[in-house]
Amino acid sequence: MKFAFHDPRTDPAPEGWAEFTRTARLHPVWDYALMGFEAWGARNPQQLVVATDGGEIVAGASVLVCRPRLAPRFAPAPGRRSLRPFWAEVYQPWLSGFPGIVFAPGFGDRGALVREFERALPRHFGVGLLGVLYRALDEELAAHVGGRARLVRSSDPTAVLANRFASEEDWLKTLPGARRGSLRRRRRRIAEDPGLVVRGGPGRDDVDGVEVATLIRAHRERYGKLPLDTRTVPSAGFLHWYLRRPDVHTLTYRDPEGRLLAVNTMLDHPDSPCLQHWAALPLDERGRSSGLYFDSYVRAVRFMTQRGAKELSAGRGMGELKQELGFLPRSLYAAVAPRPVLGR
């Protein structure tokens, strides 16, 4: 087994990676060029670690190089090793509910590969590496990374709606009466509102990355940063290319003058489309335009049923509200492996 580290800011894509993302049915955020756009704007940039066996890619991992809060605001230049302590975080930014390590279909001994991967990390990163934090693990992967002197704990679950519906109306019929009536009234009111312009679809070249980044940043600052969140708010440059992808759907709500009131992005996927970025102006700045968050869910369920996907993933947070919409929690785990036990 061989492991190669690729900095998407400067290194060429691993040979065969594009084919691997297709056969492993990965979400759009695993696109190597897109990972580069994300990394250039991140304080804790990610690297792609690829495992090959006999020249064939068998696994990949998104590894964020994370530094303490007292470290400089910006990441070190590509290729430069930091003299400050840091840790490696196996996580795929903006893909909530899915692990940062992926395998070829049918690959067997995942536990052994994870241990080899851990042994490769200090060889590549050097003496400053404190250890590894794994986020958003499913139960199987959590078992593989557990062991002596390691910490494995449950984390906030992700919300998933299994697709057993022929249409959004079939879904609405399964909800409690009050919630069902509320969603239908909102749907009708939004459709009839002359002061609201709603547009959604893939490959949106009419949406400004600066405008969306500004709204996301303001929304996140208003509600506060998630605890222990090492991600950087997506940059305008990243969003410029991201929203134009044919596998990224963007839903926008505007007033008649074109002011962006709310935005939602969704990753297309044949099995599990994912609701992703949501941001909106405060309610007192939107005028009469309320209920947009719930409307975005109605439209996402509509897309899932028309797509024929197995499920719709809505990420973590606001679990009780999502359960009212029929979503069920799926268990996730986080694990910490300090440097002395890496690979053991």
What does it look like?
There is one protein chain. By secondary structure, the protein is an alpha+beta fold. It has two domains: 2-157 and 332-341, 3-Layer(aba) Sandwich (Aminopeptidase); 164-309, Aminopeptidase (3-Layer(aba) Sandwich). Helix content is 31%, strand content 28%. It is built from ten helices and 13 strands. Strands 1, 2, 3, 4, 5, 6, 7, 12 and 13 form a nine-stranded mixed beta sheet that branches. It has a four-stranded antiparallel beta sheet with strand order 8-9-10-11, with helices on both faces. Helix 3 packs across helix 4 and helix 7 packs across helix 8. The longest helix has 16 residues, at 110-125. The protein is globular, with a radius of gyration of 21 Å. The two termini are 17 Å apart. Keywords: Acyltransferase, Transferase. One of its GO terms (molecular function) is acyltransferase activity. This is GNAT family N-acetyltransferase. Its EC number is 2.3.1.-. InterPro entries: Acyl_CoA_acyltransferase.
The ordered string of helix (H) and strand (E) elements is EHHEEEEHEHEHHEHHEEEHEHE
> Which word captures the global form?
globular
- β content, as a range? 25-35%
Count of extended strands: 13
**Largest sheet properties:** 9 strands, mixed
- CATH overall fold name of the largest domain: Aminopeptidase
The helical percent reads: 25-40%
Low-pLDDT residue intervals, each spanning 5 or more residues: none
Per CATH, the class of the largest domain reads Alpha Beta
CATH architecture of the largest domain: 3-Layer(aba) Sandwich
Measured distance between first and last alpha carbons: 17 Å
Q: On the 0-100 scale, what is the average pLDDT?
A: 92
Radius of gyration: 21 Å
Integer tally of domains: 2
GO molecular function, one term: acyltransferase activity
Protein name: GNAT family N-acetyltransferase
Enzyme class: transferase
Keywords: Acyltransferase, Transferase
